[in-house]
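Database export, one record per block. Field names are fixed; values are copied verbatim from the stored entry.
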Amino acid sequence: MGWLAGVLILFFGLLASIALHELGHFSFAKLFRVRTTQFMVGFGPTMWSRRKGETEYGVKWIPLGGYIRMIGMLPPRKGDAPGTVRQISTGPWQGLIESARGAALEEVRPDDGDRVFYAKPWWQKLIIMFAGPAMNLVLAVVFFSILLMGIGQQTPQPVIQQVSACIVPASQSDLTTCPAGAVPTPAHQAGLRPGDRIVSYQGHEIGDYDRLQKLIRDSGGQTVAMTVRRDGRDMTLNVPIVRNQMHDLQDDKKIVNVGFLGITPTEAMERQGPGAVADAMASMTKHTAGALVRMPQKMVGVWNAAFGGDERDPNGPVGVVGVSRIGGDVAASKALSTSEKVWYFVMLLGSLNLAVGLFNLIPLLPLDGGHMAGALLEALKKAFARVFRKPDPGYVDVAKALPVTYVMAAVLIVMGGLLIYADVFNPIRFKG
């Protein structure tokens, strides 16, 4: 029951995010008076719908996205009379373009006037198309704010959880026993114990573990005075800090020679400030953007996992089915407390909205970023015409990009199908 509840929470959370994405587009389309005939969550046959005014609102059976139907997304070819399409030209792509143009213009009514999308000023088209991804980015900020400022984050404390028995370099940090001839750690030699709170280090008052960690790393080769609080009493110890090969704090792949004490800190949930939310958003945005750039390579890994039996990359792409299954695993986990499960759900929803928002900003049709690129190109052409006193070039004919659009749509469909298959037969499992 718990697993199913987790699946449904993530599933409907993702659907709600999709609906809000479309609401972003829809709100500004209505504001700028673009005739919008449909607002749908999902694809395929309609499960439920209701018409209000000129718009049909509904839910479809395939929950893999959503859309709003704005009239006039494809413009007539320049020189054609409004509402008409010139005879189809020779050539498969040109014929395809004109067929799509004709189908789009069939929806344009004689009284639509400037209510068609293509006739709107470039800045209105840009805002309408950006509003969808912007809604996801705002949702990501909201979820990460709830996560960090409301719930808190596991933060290391200057309280000892474990004292390492011997000094081992970072490359051997996974050892469970000390090798023969290993040197005891400074913490072990000084008699530090689990539960000791370090209150001062080398004369510096210690309020958080990050400050303590930096001081330890900067004092390699020195004997320092350390005050610890044990059972309510303070005691001062002189501890010889040694140097050891450790992972760099800024780049985990880099090894540095720094001061080493040999303790593992306890962790406690602490609420963070707005700065932590900004830092988290910046870090997650950089990570997600990098993942999108590496998407083709990552999809090769998904293919190998789906059909070759390779293990799924836990940091690789995942679809609706996979996300929902992770939600089920989180909910069913016996190792997590209820508050930790809530933390994971909020984190997943924030990460998903960030990924959806950034993905839709890719400047390729049929993604929102492709339409935004068309609006920006229109702005540049108009600015160029004004500077050089040339006639207004009018709207950008995005229909010319339809061949690329169809190829991109086919790629997205194949990717979606591959992810669903992999998520069913070789899913990413939550381990916790």
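Remark 1: The two ends are 18 Å apart (CA to CA).
Remark 2: Residues 154-270 form a domain with the Pdz3 Domain fold (CATH 2.30.42.10).
End of record.
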